[in-house]
UniProtKB/TrEMBL annotation:
Entry cofactors: Mg(2+)
A GO molecular-function descriptor: metal ion binding
GO CC, one annotated term: cytosol
Protein name: Probable GTP-binding protein EngB
Residue ranges constituting the EngB-type G domain according to the UniProt record: 23-207
Gene Ontology BP term (one): division septum assembly
Gene that specifies this protein: engB
Function, as annotated: Necessary for normal cell division and for the maintenance of normal septation.
Family: Belongs to the TRAFAC class TrmE-Era-EngA-EngB-Septin-like GTPase superfamily. EngB GTPase family.
A Pfam cross-reference name: MMR_HSR1
């Protein structure tokens, strides 16, 4: 059983003052309201209705925490981390007050939350790097110690060459920022890329050892001769 199968709702916070104690690593999910953020969380945790999406963009203005637990050595369960569902940003129909509330809540959480270990930014692979995505990515540059994963969702709706192109361009952008930024294609509808995402987040939580680096021969290396 995956650690993400244990996800259970813990608490919702409408203000930063209502956030729970940060006693365990937190992995936050952010994304536009139509990018499939809630679906991503539900697919990852294999729960149909764990995360909810409002039909009206910008309507849900709560930070939701889901606990991940495992059996403790002394018995019972221990919390090893939290998945954090940040309010979606879809501002075409949102009021100015709603936009300001989102900016203060999400921006404040990302800027000051010490327990934040990594941020997954869910983007529509057909239209990645929208202005609000760019704002969030730029905002995250102030916290280089926090890992960032760009999840290019709805990749199943792209042709093979289009998928390769969008992934290649996103990977190039990620390299410009730093090694703490990673990218992958994903499809919440087809459940493609779920294992890759789970492995990445397990690394962030310290539940998986990183794969050993494979040494590649230098381009200038001289091959040994066989006698």
């Amino acid at each position: 059983m995956s650690i993400f199968d244990t996800a259970q709702f813990v608490i919702s916070a409408a203000k930063l003052s209502g956030l729970p104690r940060g006693d365990a690593p937190e992995i936050a999910f952010a994304g536009r309201s139509n990018a499939g953020k809630s679906t991503t969380i539900n697919v990852l945790t294999r729960k149909t209705r764990l995360a909810f999406a409002s039909k009206t963009p910008g309507r849900t203005q709560l930070i939701n925490f889901f606990g991940l637990t495992r059996r403790a050595e002394e018995g019972g369960r221990e919390t090893v981390g939290h998945l954090v569902d940040l309010p979606g940003y879809g501002f075409a129909k949102a009021s100015e007050d709603t936009r300001r509330t989102w900016s203060d809540l999400v921006g404040g959480y990302i800027a000051r939350r010490e327990a934040l270990t990594g941020l997954v930014i869910v983007m529509d692979a057909r239209r990645p790097f929208m202005p609000t995505d760019e704002w969030l990515i730029e905002f995250m540059k102030a916290r280089p110690g926090v890992k960032m994963h760009w999840l290019l969702n709805k990749a199943d709706q792209l042709k093979t060459m289009e998928r390769r192109k969008v992934l290649r361009e996103a990977e190039a952008r990620a390299r410009e920022i730093g090694p703490h930024v990673t990218v992958q294609l994903f499809s919440g509808l087809k459940k493609e890329g779920t294992a890759e995402l789970a492995e990445r987040l397990e690394l962030w939580l310290g539940l998986r050892e990183p794969a050993p680096e494979v040494e590649t021969p230098s381009a200038n290396a001289t091959p040994e001769k066989n006698d």
